[in-house]
Amino acid sequence: MVTLDSPNNDETSEAGNTWRAKSALACYISVVAGVLIVALATALVLGSSGVNLRDPPYPLSLVSIPVNEIAILLLTLAFARRSRASLGQLGFKKISIGMLLKTFLLAIAMLALTATIALAQNAVLGPDPTEEAFARLIAPRTGVQLIILVIFSMALVGPVEEVFARGYIQQGLEESFGKVRGWLLASFLFGMLHALNVLRAIAPTFVAGLVLGLIWQRTGRNTTAVAIVHGVYDSIAMALTFLAGF
Fold it and tell me: Coil, helix or strand for 177?
């Protein structure tokens, strides 16, 4: 079993946080509403510009990822500022080389686990046309597009979604409900957030949230570590989608 290095004492000496479940849930609701509003606005802008949203000339993820992630980041930082949370309290800490290498292994293991769950769902329920259509809309079509989306995954998706889901949401829920219940609830909310894309994403992303939340706990609430795992996970998934020819 792969385990991560424990953080140094000086990396865990931040003062206790100042927010609990009420602020965490308010942040979550604000982010869900914000993402929906931004997605609608983006669709309206693209549609009015003549882009066929059912068969776009480029992956919509090239637009949706930066727009959505910036919205999530701004809303999360607004709540963090209101809670007077420092970057250290949100979990931005140093990681060792050994931990960095293990994050890549954990990302691969997490991808294998979530892919197994997705395959099991399709075996029981049959193929999901909505899931396949969504994959075609966001999948890179050229090597250059793949590189851009990998950069987005590592620089935006991983860091932004982890400071939101683990650094702020899970931390606030754990402060109110305890380590286990806070972890479970944060993971469930993480899965539900991805239902905005595809309903069948709930189960795989719930499990991914459990894994990421556990890593976050085991590393002393190190959001940097889980951000890398998340970014690598999405990058590999994007590369596999590209190779599959969606």
Answer: helix
pLDDT tens digits for range 198-219: 999 999 999 999 999 999 999 9
- Report the distance separating Cα 108 and Cα 130, nearest Å: 25
DSSP at 4: P
As given in the structure block, the two tokens for residue 121 are 């769902």
Q: How far apart are CA 143 and CA 179, in angstroms?
A: 42
Short-list 147, 131, 167, CA closest to 235:
147
List, in sequence order, the alpha helices (H) in 126-162. Answer: 129-138, 143-152, 158-162
Give residues with Cβ within 8 angstroms of 123, minimum separation 6. none
Query: CA–CA separation, 119 vs 130, rounded Å?
Result: 15
Distance CA 122, CA 163 (A): 31
Residue 244 pLDDT:
84
Q: Residues 225, 99: contact at Cβ < 8 Å?
A: yes
Closest C-alpha among 172, 203, 176, 200 to residue 190: 203
- Please state, in angstroms and rounded to a whole number, the distance separating the CA atoms of residues 191 and 59: 23
Structure tokens at 104: 């890549």
Q: How many CA atoms lie within 13 A of 93 on its CB side?
A: 25
- Residues 223, 91 contacting (CB under 8 angstroms): yes
Tokens at 150, concatenated = 């990998």
What is the distance between the alpha carbons of residues 116 and 95, in angstroms, rounded to a whole number? 30
- Per the structure block, which two tokens stand in for 190? 């993480």
155-164 tens-digit pLDDT: 999 999 999 9
| Residue 218 identity (one-letter amino acid) | R
Distance CA(38)–CA(174), nearest Å, equals 29
